[in-house]
Amino acid sequence: MLCIKNESALKIMAEGGRLLASCLELLGESIKPGMSTLELDKIAYKYIISNGAKPSFLGMYGFPNTLCISVNEQVIHGIPSKKKIIREGDLVSVDGGVFWKGFHTDMARTFIVGEASEEKKLLVERTKQSFFEGLRFARVGYRISDVSHGIEEYINQFGYGIVRDFTGHGVGRELHESPEIPNFGAPGHGTRIVNGMTLAIEPMINLGTEKVTVLSDRWTTVTLDGAPSAHYENTVAIIDGEPIIITDPNVRI
């Protein structure tokens, strides 16, 4: 069932979205070679709690930390650890959520640590752009599969692998709501986009194969061929027929 938000709920979600965006901005400024992924996680926890919110991921489905931090071939759901040290040239995907006044927002970025190869830089840049290619169709009058197709059509020209085992999703009172939002598929199918929808659109793109596997910790998901992966996500609200990125520190509703 679709969970449509009224103006009051959208305002609250925008407040939470600004907080989450500011948190990831802080993480981007803090990340450096030699630090552990657990150190980065602790920065996020302190920031979210000190601002009166709660980390959406902490304890969700048994997840033990504030952030999912996935390095290089890790696609999503990496568990922060003091043993996982960030190195020069790494791609570090940081996925976080904030629970604020009864509503969740969800957001992810892939950070390039120091100097990285040109192919890694392009992967991150194109993964980000694929989000915006899909966003063009996140409007009243289109369907969810039009968003999916926009992402796929852009990415296919580069020969990258589009992760198929995990998707974007609705978000709001629950972290994961309907509808599912794949990053691939034919246009013109599925749920119609209407005002009041709040969607977590999140391309997960691999430099190599689309195939992934989950490690023995039952969380960390890696590319099957060991190639690096990138992740870009925002929470988007449909307002007056148009998509508004509410995980943006400058957005006001």
What is CATH's topology name? Creatine Amidinohydrolase
| Highest-level CATH class | Alpha Beta
Tell me the number of strands. 15
User: From the coordinates shown, what is the CATH architecture?
Assistant: Alpha-Beta Complex
User: Shape, please?
Assistant: globular
Give the count of structural domains. 1
H/E element sequence: HHEEEEEHHEEEEEEEEEE
Strand count, sense and barrel status of the largest sheet are: 5 strands, antiparallel
- Structural class computed from helices and strand pairing: alpha+beta
Which labels suit this protein?
253 residues; alpha+beta; Creatine Amidinohydrolase; 5-stranded antiparallel β-sheet; 4-stranded antiparallel β-sheet; 4 helices; 27% helix; 26% strand
Polypeptide structure, described:
By secondary structure, this protein is α+β, with helices and mostly antiparallel strands. It has one domain (about 5-245): Alpha-Beta Complex (Creatine Amidinohydrolase), CATH 3.90.230. It has four helices and 15 strands. The strands form four sheets. It has a five-stranded antiparallel beta sheet. Strands 1, 2, 4 and 5 form a four-stranded antiparallel beta sheet that branches. α1 packs antiparallel against α2 and α3 packs antiparallel against α4. The two termini are about 25 Å apart. The mean pLDDT is about 100.
Give a summary of the structure in a few sentences.
The longest helix is centred in the N-terminal third of the chain and has 24 residues, at 7-30. A 5-stranded antiparallel sheet has the order 8-7-9-14-15.
